[in-house]
Amino acid sequence: MRNFTDAYLLEKLCQNDTTAFEEIYRRYSSKVYRIAYKKLYSKETAEELVQDLFTKLWLKRHELHITGSIESYLAIAILNAVTTHIRACLVREKYASQIQWDHYLQETNTEDIVCVNELEEALQRAISSMPEKSKEVFLLSRNESQSANQIAEHLNISHKTVEYHMGKALKYLRVYLRDFVTLIIFWFTF
Which of 20, 107, 153, 161 would disulfide-bridge 157, Cβ 3.0–4.6 Å? Predict the structure, then answer.
């Protein structure tokens, strides 16, 4: 089957031909793995996603409507799987952080809670009063954990522009929250 075209292999796959499936796996699994690994830098996770992808390929073989090459289809499918995995990790991390924060709040006294709530409100006011582009860059960086390169690509601006707006946002926060931070330090010291 090594000389057969992708179209022929897909046709045979849809006819439950395990040899065609094995050939597709042999041809493309390492390429798909490299794509996943480059995004995740985790051998185990990349292997798991590749195995899931090929398992789904076999299970959904009768429903496949691949018009291009198998390689392109698998590359897009693994990128979607990586994106889904990253989103799930971010949701889990955010949930775990929220649980830790809730636990912290339950253990602190009322004065500390009031002080922390005031800080949160001041931070939100500071962010909302930032210049629009700096605010957008800051929120993508802090709330969505995007890197400077991802933000530049997302906003269609240069990496240097992202750095400029991030620096501007952080400087803005330092100035805006300066008095408040002094108050917090004073509060927790005494």
Answer: 161
**pTM strictly above 0.90:** no
User: Residue 189 is inside which H or E element, if any?
Assistant: helix 159-189
Instruction: Lowest mean pLDDT of 45-49, 67-71, 117-121, 180-184, name the range.
Output: 180-184
Is the per-residue pLDDT at 27 higher than 60?
yes
End-to-end CA distance of the chain: 77
Residues 6+ apart with CB under 8 A from 31: 71, 74, 75
Confidence of residue 181 (pLDDT cuts 50, 70, 90): low
- Residue pair 36/49 in contact by the 8 Å Cβ criterion: yes
Beta strands in the chain (DSSP E): none
* The token pair that represents 109 in the structure block: 């006294």
Q: How is 149-186 classified by DSSP, letter by letter?
A: HHHHHHHT--HHHHHHHHHHHHHHHHHHHHHHHHHHHH
